[in-house]
Amino acid sequence: MSRILLLIILFTSASLHAQEKTAPKPLYDDPIYHGAADPVIVYNKKVKKWWMFYTNRRATLDDSSGVAWVHGTKIGYAESTDGSNWKYVDTLNIDYRPDTGYTFWAPDIIENKGIYHMYLTYVPGIFTDWNHPRTIVHLSSINLIDWEYESTLELVNEKVIDASVFKLPDGSWRMWYNNEKDGKSIYYADSKDLHEWTDMGKAIAARGEGPKVFHWKNKYWMIVDVWKGMEIYSSDDLLNWKKQEGRILENPGKGVDDQAIGGHCEVIVNNNRAFVYYFTHPGRRKDEPAKRNSFDDKRSVIQLAELKYDDGIINCDRDAKLTVKLKHP
User: Fold this and answer.
1) Which residues in 3-39 are b (16+ Cβ under 10 Å) and which e?
2) Alpha carbon distance 51, 48 (integer Å)
3) Which of 34, 86, 117, 183 is most exposed by smallest CB count within 10 Å?
4) Is 324 helix (H, G, I), strand (E, B) or coil?
5) How many structural domains is the chain composed of?
6) In whole angstroms, how far apart are CA 224 and each of 111, 130, 302?
7) What's the whole-number average pLDDT of the chain?
């Protein structure tokens, strides 16, 4: 090999390496309210970019009366070409607003036959406590921005949140959600068409919220936010779930704004790798907690880590340097 050719190869390799930037910490901070949480990520085929949708909590609200700042929320969205670098765009246009001070939480979005379907937690107002109804509504869209109301799901009761929808091997659909009246355990419902749903009862007895179901390494997995990190369950049939020992995202990280526990996540399986997008409250770190109900206490950001699989167990090093470039479907 000639000296000139070797120099060209080395220069090209160095240039490519320089272009591969490590994912930032935090990954994303909503520039309006600084309260991004509960992310879900979808590839927008029309604009050829990844879109992240999230609960847009109002952390900047100067109110210490309770949890009003977690209410009155819209759904924000940001976009990215690679899944690593995100830019704020706007909030969604959702045509379901029957109550003054309507509240939108924790969307889950799937695409089927060119139509996008959102299953969204709806709260009928702005409240200072948690003692109010919550339902899951079905909306549809062709552009991921403008959403039309389809129905309010008839589930086990009217105190349900955090839908996670997954397509079953037979082509039907299953939704997991949090039943707050039953100790915040995880329930599920089935549908053949994404419109009519039949509640099937309890899926797992554990207390938690924000279930996320995905397929990876020839198994089905469910990650559940248990407010002290994430518990992980595995299944071969999407009905019988086995909890693994040990949680992920429980111990503090070292990156910027990553010293608190990880909460309500999204998992993207891409090119045989699995990435977990989660949120943290940076001001709720155990060693230096912020003043209760202060901006620093309420503020939340989105973080990113990679899941690793070892002998049937999923683990996660939130401090590992991470280069991400999601491939387009």
Assistant:
1) eeeeeeeeeeeeeeeeeeeebbbbbbbbeebbbbbbb
2) 9
3) 183
4) coil
5) 1
6) 23, 20, 17
7) 94
Q: CA 214, CA 266: separation in Å to the nearest integer? A: 9
pLDDT value for 256: 98
For residue 321, give the nearest of 20, 28, 11 by alpha carbon: 20
- DSSP characters for 172-237? -EEEEEEEGGGTTEEEEEEESSSSS-EEEEEEEEEE-EEEEEEEETTEEEEEEE-SSSEEEEEESS
* Beta carbons of 77 and 92 less than 8 angstroms apart: yes
Residue 131, in any domain of the structure: yes
Q: Which band of pLDDT confidence, cut at 50, 70 and 90, is reported for residue 206?
A: confident
Cα→Cα distances 327→13, 18, 69, 176, 272, Å: 21, 19, 36, 27, 11
Question: pTM score > 0.85 for this model?
Answer: yes
Q: Say which CATH number the domain at 102 has.
A: 2.115.10.20
| Domain-embedded: residue 148 | yes
* Percent of the chain clearing pLDDT 90 (strictly above): 91
Answer whether residue 163 is part of any domain: yes
| Host domain of residue 61 | 23-316
The answer to whether 94 touches 139, Cβ cutoff 8 Å, is yes
Residue 4 falls within a domain, yes or no?
Answer: no
- What is the C-alpha separation between 108 and 194, in angstroms, rounded? 13
Q: Please give the Cα distance from 28 to 301 (Å, whole number).
A: 6
